[in-house]
Amino acid sequence: MLSLTAFILMLNHIDAEPDPSGFKLIYDGTNTFYFQIWGTESLTDTWDALDVESGYNQQQTWVDPISLTTQKAFFYRVNKVDIQTPNDIDGDGIHDLLEHSHFFLNPLDPTDATNDLDGNGLDNLQESLIGLDITLVDSDADGMEDGYEVQHACLNPQLSDADGNPDGDAIANLMEMLLGSDPCIANTGTGSLSVVYVDGLNGNNTNDGSITFPVATIQKGIDLVSSNSVGQVIVAAGNYTENNILYNGVYVQGAGTDLTISTGRFDIVGVTNAGVRAMTIADSGGYGVNIDQSDGILLQPESVR
Ligand SMILES: [Ca+2]
Ligand SMILES: [Ca+2]
Ligand SMILES: [Ca+2]
Ligand SMILES: [Ca+2]
User: Fold this and answer.
1) Of the bound ligands, which one is closest to the alpha carbon of residue 36?
2) What spacing in Å lies between the alpha carbon of 6 and ligand 4's midpoint?
3) Ligand 1 centre distance from Cα of residue 7 (Å)
4) DSSP states of 144-184 as a string?
């Protein structure tokens, strides 16, 4: 004998009617609540989670995908849940509303919490607990992936901190990532990683390139870093009209758009892991940057014109 019973909990209004394609629940939606639908074949059994439905201020219909003809006695229960305090029907740690709003998550499947949808090294549960976007490799779009930022406690995956320097060693966070050094531990001495300062106005190419005694041209800065191995050339605001040749592992960083302006050319040929950023590269009559047969090149001038 077929017996269908709808249990109505905390709902203002609900209709239940048989439907050839399955048992149908019709209820009044609301913007401030969502609904969990549970079912069981026997009131002495545990309730099984059947679905999560969002509210809306209109009549909602939910149809059980199991057809009536194959259904034995069945009982339904609808729970109304405040969207401000969502539950977690599958108990995987990711709340129902987040799962319901992303088609690739299933509020009834606890295994999707351990997937890493965007492949950034953090699984979906870790991202949801931190409040990161589980669809974005780099939630704050600062060039450093979420997983990298979480692994380094001095970085903030929800704040654009590529230019920050929490270890106070003169190498900005993004540069540390690209150079393979730890952004949270100051690089002491020159070692294999060096920083050379360039100041077109106050520098002199006979200087050592320290912050106190900067060199005058970008190329001199590149040459000094390259002679040491890898590192960063920090170029002060000003106009630079030289042509430059970039080498492996050297990153040139200006003071920002329209502050550091290069009207010379950057030749990046046969180079691995190098870059130019935070400066304006103006057209010097042909092209500002020539990249050829190179790999891992970061080119992030604010404007190339
Ligand atoms: Ca969940
Ligand atoms: Ca992820
Ligand atoms: Ca980031
Ligand atoms: Ca640093």
Assistant:
1) 1
2) 62
3) 23
4) S-HHHHHHSTTS-TTS--TT--TT-SS--HHHHHHHT--TT
